């Protein structure tokens, strides 16, 4: 749809930048706005939006890249599964180059491990149908946008009788880390740009707590340059007026209640569990595990030998994910850690802050 | 990873649909968005339609942006916003 491109109209982008600059003059202090979606990280950097903002408005990326926040131990387990002769690992492409303790899934595949890159969980189900003698393990990584697609594939596997399809559950949900970051005294966040496509599923009402409980402005925005800038403008205005609220500026796809069908399907297969986020540590209720009655779909129950995870030495991914430092402040950035030879996950995924800064200069 | 793209529904085939964007066609599942109709723009993520684009809202936002551009167009020094 070429209409989506019209949301990048340069005249509107210039107008918004002017409006933000004017509004920012009335700010009592410098403010920090955090986005929590890898697609925003990429969009902001690719369009050079930071360069359009006045010095009083800092826009940072939080833990919105699912691959970046996935702990090393998860990738280690996926590798160990791929080495089993009776298993095929199917994964989104984002995960194959993420460093594990001693390599990556890409390296594992080069050494004979069975790793298939797929575009959709449906494709992983097709791999299972084509290989009835082996267990196909889909790497279930991603936030609220992605989890329903994995639940849908599980539902199809149950209905159509595909017994050899399993999921290694590593899904995460966004509200708990946002709460953790807002309450962390080491992190300054004056407002949140809310993840647009997570909001398609959960609805804008799911973020009411950000204003009511955490007292921060939060605005649902899309991914075009004007979408992001309108969100920044709304937050600056709210800070000036001292009236934090949830605004939905992506109403062309986001409703207050979200996609109930998708959430019902997720609830059928998954339940909340405490989860570890790289950089943020363990956060209660921030992950999703397969429900107890679904042991036959749970790849976490396939026995493999996995050693204690080894984090890359000197990598400051964790501080980048919390927005405590900008990527160039990491001593490895651009020297030993580049997209071609990444040390940390944030440099691997195109949605990672480090990769975005490296490619587009912030 | 949460990238999703609006594509137009050309045809429904049970729980599947053929969708199109700029001449590229794909088959997607409507399991998460069963009420999508022919002609709708659906938001496609990882092989599934996860939402429907509200065309009226999209048009209103574009009208608002055009108005902002018009209002701001005449004032200030050209390029001032980019420094």
Mean pLDDT of chain B: 88
Strand line-up of the largest beta sheet of chain A:
2-1-7-8-9
CATH topology of chain B: SH3 type barrels
- Biggest β-sheet strands, sense, barrel of chain B: 5 strands, antiparallel
The number of E-state strands of chain A comes to: 11
- Rg of chain B (C-alpha, Å): 18 Å
Q: Strand-residue fraction of chain A?
A: 15-25%
Oligomer: heterodimer
Structural class of chain B: alpha+beta
Number of strands of chain B: 5
Distance between the termini of chain A: 28 Å
Task: Explain what you see.
The complex is a heterodimer of chains A (362) and B (83). Chain A has 15 helices and 11 strands. Chain A has 362 residues and is α/β, with parallel strands linked by helices. In chain A, the strands form 3 sheets. In chain A, strands 2-1-7-8-9 form a 5-stranded parallel β-sheet. A 4-stranded parallel β-sheet of chain A has the order 4-3-5-6, with helices on both faces. In chain A, strands 10-11 form a two-stranded antiparallel ribbon. In chain A, strand 3 (87-91), helix 5 (105-110) and strand 4 (115-117) form a beta-alpha-beta unit. The model of chain A has no long low-confidence stretch (mean pLDDT 95). Chain B is an alpha+beta fold. Chain B has one helix at residues 55-73; strands at residues 5-13, 16-21, 24-29, 41-45, 48-52. In chain B, a hairpin with a 2-residue loop joins strand 4 and strand 5. The longest helix of chain B is centred in the C-terminal third of the chain and has 19 residues, at 55-73. The interface between A and B is large, with 59 and 42 residues.
């Amino acid at each position: 749809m070429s209409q989506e491109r019209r949301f990048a109209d340069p005249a509107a982008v210039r107008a918004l930048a002017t409006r933000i600059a004017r509004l920012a003059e009335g700010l009592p202090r410098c403010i920090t706005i955090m986005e929590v979606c890898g697609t925003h990280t990429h969009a902001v950097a690719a369009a050079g939006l930071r360069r359009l903002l006045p010095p009083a408005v800092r826009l940072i990326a939080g833990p919105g890249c699912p691959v970046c926040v996935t702990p090393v131990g998860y990738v280690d387990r996926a590798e160990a599964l791929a080495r089993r002769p009776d298993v095929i690992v199917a994964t989104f492409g984002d995960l194959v180059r993420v460093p594990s303790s001693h390599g990556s899934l890409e390296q594992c595949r080069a050494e004979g491990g069975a790793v298939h890159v797929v575009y959709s969980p449906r494709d992983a189900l097709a791999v299972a149908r084509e290989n009835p003698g082996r267990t196909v393990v889909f790497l279930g990584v991603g936030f609220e946008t992605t989890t329903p697609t994995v639940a849908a594939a599980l539902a199809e596997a149950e209905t159509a009788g595909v017994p050899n399809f399993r999921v290694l559950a590593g899904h995460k949900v966004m509200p708990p880390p946002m709460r953790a970051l807002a309450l962390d005294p080491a992190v300054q966040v004056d407002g949140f740009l809310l993840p647009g496509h997570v909001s398609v599923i959960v609805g804008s009402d799911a973020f009411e707590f950000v204003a009511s409980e955490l007292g921060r402005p939060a605005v649902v925005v899309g991914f075009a340059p004007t979408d992001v800038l309108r969100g920044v403008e709304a937050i600056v205005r709210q800070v000036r007026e001292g009236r934090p609220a949830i605004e939905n500026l992506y109403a062309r796809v986001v409703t207050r209640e979200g996609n109930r069908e998708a959430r019902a399907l997720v609830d059928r297969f998954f339940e909340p569990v405490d989860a570890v986020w790289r950089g943020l540590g363990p956060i209660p209720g921030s992950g999703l595990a397969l429900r107890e009655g679904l042991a036959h779909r749970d790849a976490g129950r396939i026995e493999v030998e996995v050693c204690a995870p080894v984090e890359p030495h000197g990598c400051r991914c964790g501080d980048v994910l919390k927005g405590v430092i900008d990527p160039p402040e990491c001593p490895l950035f651009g020297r030993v850690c580049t997209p071609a030879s990444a040390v940390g996950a944030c440099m691997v995924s195109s949605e990672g802050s480090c990769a975005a800064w490296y490619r587009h200069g912030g | 990873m949460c990238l999703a793209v609006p594509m137009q529904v050309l045809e429904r085939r049970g729980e599947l649909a053929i969708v199109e964007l700029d001449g590229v066609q794909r088959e997607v599942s409507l399991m998460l968005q069963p009420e999508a109709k022919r002609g709708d723009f659906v938001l496609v993520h990882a092989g599934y339609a996860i939402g429907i684009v509200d065309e009226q809202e999209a048009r209103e936002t574009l009208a608002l942006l055009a108005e902002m551009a018009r209002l701001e167009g005449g004032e200030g020094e050209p390029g001032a916003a980019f420094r």
